[in-house]
Amino acid sequence: MKKIDITNIVLNENAYFFSAKSKITKKFILKIFQEARDDKDARRSYDSLIRQSLFEGGQEVAKYSLDIFDFDQKPSFLKQPQDLWETKTALFLILEYKEYVVIFRKNISGIKSLKSMAEPIDYSILANFYIDDKSKFEKIVSNTLNTADNAIQTKTAEAIDLKGVMTRFGASKQVISAMRLDNEGDKATISLNTSRVNALKLRQDLESVLFWSIKMCNLITVAIVNNKMHRFLAGFALPIDFEKEIQVLNPKFLLFRFNSLLDQIENGLIQSLYQVDDEGKQLEVKINEIIAPLRGLITLNKDKENLYNGNGVNVRINQKSITINSDLFKNLFVKMQDDPIAFSYYLNTQCHYLITFEQPEYAYTHHKIFKDHKLLNDLEVFLDTFIPEPLLKNVKSEKGTGYTTNSSEFKGDSIFGIVDNMLKSKDNVICDDLGVEWGDFIAVHNNEISFYHCKHNDNALSASNLEEVFGQAQKNLGYLELNDESVEYRRNRWCRAYRLNNVNTKIKRIRKCKNPSKPISSIKESIRKASASGNLKRSVFVVINFLSKSELGISLNRLKNGENFENKGVTLQILWFVNAVLSSANEVGVEFRVICRP
User: Fold this and answer.
1) Is beta strand 497-500 parallel, antiparallel or unpaired with respect to 503-508?
2) Element (H or E) spanning 349, and its range?
3) How many CB atoms lie within 10 A of CB 263?
């Protein structure tokens, strides 16, 4: 057996930080090293170093353990190994310092025993330990607490310093998953959902890397003592004590987030997804076959104490976490770096899901409960998004009925008729309905460009109808950047009369423009002037008849008071849908409003 020459080892300052649950023993170190080797079906190549002393100034300050071994694996481009194998070397380094455990690893996986002895550094501590008054936030990756299908689930923002330029609107609905900091040239990336810290430096010798780890541990201790959230981070969703809050929270919805899984497949980190049949044979599985039945919002119902289910998925509340499982995942494995991992274990360790509760301001993600501390505190501001329109109380349809070849106006008892009349004072109005539309109506007036999306429903308030119209509004935000080319693309449609239910009416699609003799040129000119204005205002309006502003206000207050009522679920989704569009619209400088019944 070869001896390890530690003077020949160079590593990046890139490690996982944990709090020790109990004293680390030699027996445990040997067990976890053996577990890592067994996972690779590896052969020992070097004598392990077990709990070696690290000295500073003649005093022992920490202990470290190191294991290096070789293992064979088939090349990733082969289905079967045949006679071709490649040999890789794995490194597993553990530092014990005070109450901390620090892990360095290369080609190491399958160390499940670690959970019994250590737990990741708390989110709120890890988020703040590396920050001082001069820190610059160069990059932030965040996930939303919003479960609406029209919500942007992951956002990445980069700048020299995001403190001065990143919009704070909607930040309370965002959970930071990773960030890159610059402390006067000393840069590091912190992954909050994996408890990993990566100093962006060249590789260093082993002793230097170990002392860097100790420095990080000391900074973590300071952050625990201070127990303060940096003022910039305080605007984001707040981490909440799990064991305390879970006692009064009831899971309501589950949303799987498969984007990270797809990214790992795209980047080659996941080699395959397969299922093992009763005979032990591996059958390749297409990822879409697994994802398809789990897309969208899943409603959860209580089965028994601490167990909820919905759509074939079980959600279990544990002492310090929430985990999911399903028969859909039975005998299903993810292969990463040739290491098979149970799909359910993968989803739970990566936490690729979001769980929300009957209490709408709370959500579980990143192995922790977070609170949107502004959701129910800004209800008056939220209600300002809604504009009451009395005429919507008596509408009978969205577009009107009974049109003939002589019809030249939209029916007054339709939403289209109300919007058309509402826009009489605008310089330019176009009906862009049907096909791949930008909006049912487009208005250009002075320095303002506006889109109007209409939706009628005779039935009671429903989440599906709201989702459809809000989703369309959000999808079309980008089309507000109108120009000559986009108008020319619409020329043929706009120059034809409106056709509905196979009836060619005399209703002009260009409802109004400054120069009716040259309508397209006139519209282009108005768009150019509006777009060139330093005070350009872009707006999106959703016009619906199946929502009352006053009734919504009552429901929101009942929601805030923690009451149970008939439309509680739909009220929750209105909060999510509208906030999702508001957030997206704000990011691109667009005003969003909803016109509804009083």
Assistant:
1) antiparallel
2) helix 343-350
3) 12
Beta-strand pair 362-365/368-371: antiparallel
Orientation angle between helical segments 549-560 and 568-587, nearest 10 degrees: 100
CA distance 511 to 444: 12
- Tell me how far apart the alpha carbons of residues 274 and 335 are, in angstroms, rounded to a whole number: 8
CB atoms within 10 A of CB 194: 18
How far apart are the C-alpha atoms of 30 and 17, rounded to whole Å? Answer: 20
CA atoms within 13 A of residue 351's CA, in its CB half-sphere? 16
Output the CA–CA distances (angstroms, integers) from residue 580 to 39, 169, 451, 546, in the order listed: 43, 11, 18, 20
Say what the pLDDT of residue 532 is. 87
* Type and span of the H or E element at 591: strand 590-597
- Which two three-digit tokens encode residue 496? 């034809």
Q: d(Cα 234, Cα 211) in Å, to the nearest integer?
A: 31
**Helix residue ranges, H only, 476-593:** 484-489, 491-495, 519-532, 549-560, 568-587
Q: Is 528 left (phi over 0), alpha (psi -120 to 50) or beta?
A: alpha
Cα-to-chain-centroid distance, residue 268: 21
Residue 369: strand pairing partners: 240, 364
Q: Dihedral sign, CA of 387, 392, 398, 403?
A: negative
Q: Give the dihedral sign, CA 196/202/203/206.
A: negative
Any idea how long the chain is? 598
Question: Which pLDDT belongs to residue 26?
Answer: 94
Q: Is the pLDDT of residue 81 over 60?
A: no
The number of angstroms, rounded, from the C-alpha of 223 to the middle of its chain's C-alpha atoms is: 27
Query: Please, which pLDDT band fits residue 14 given cuts at 50, 70 and 90?
Result: very high
- In this prediction, residue 351 has a pLDDT band, given cuts at 50, 70 and 90, of confident
- Summarised one tens digit per residue, pLDDT across range 121-155 is 999 999 999 998 889 999 999 998 877 666 778 88
More confident residue, 168 or 15: 15
Model pLDDT, residue 462: 65
- Buried b / exposed e over 28-48, threshold 16 CB at 10 Å, is bbeebbeebbebbebeebbeb
**First CA to last CA across the chain, in angstroms?**
82
Q: E strands, 241-380, where?
A: 251-256, 270-276, 282-284, 298-299, 301-304, 307-310, 313-317, 322-326, 332-336, 339-342, 353-357, 362-365, 368-371
- With H, G, I as helix, E, B as strand and everything else as coil, classify residue 346: helix
Residue holding tokens 């680390």?
Answer: 24
Collapsing DSSP states into helix, strand and coil, what is residue 277?
A: coil
Average pLDDT, the chain: 88
The string of DSSP letters for 394-454 reads G--BSS-S---TT--S--TTBHHHHHHHHTTTSSEEEE--SSS-S-SEEEEETTEEEEEEE
Which strand (E) or helix (H) includes residue 10?
strand 10-11
Tell me the two tokens of residue 86: 């490649």
* pTM reported for the whole predicted model: 0.78
Tokens 């920050």 identify what position?
131
Give the 3-state secondary structure of residue 86. strand
Question: Are the C-beta atoms of residues 291 and 326 closer than 8 Å to each other?
Answer: no
Q: How does DSSP classify residue 273?
A: E
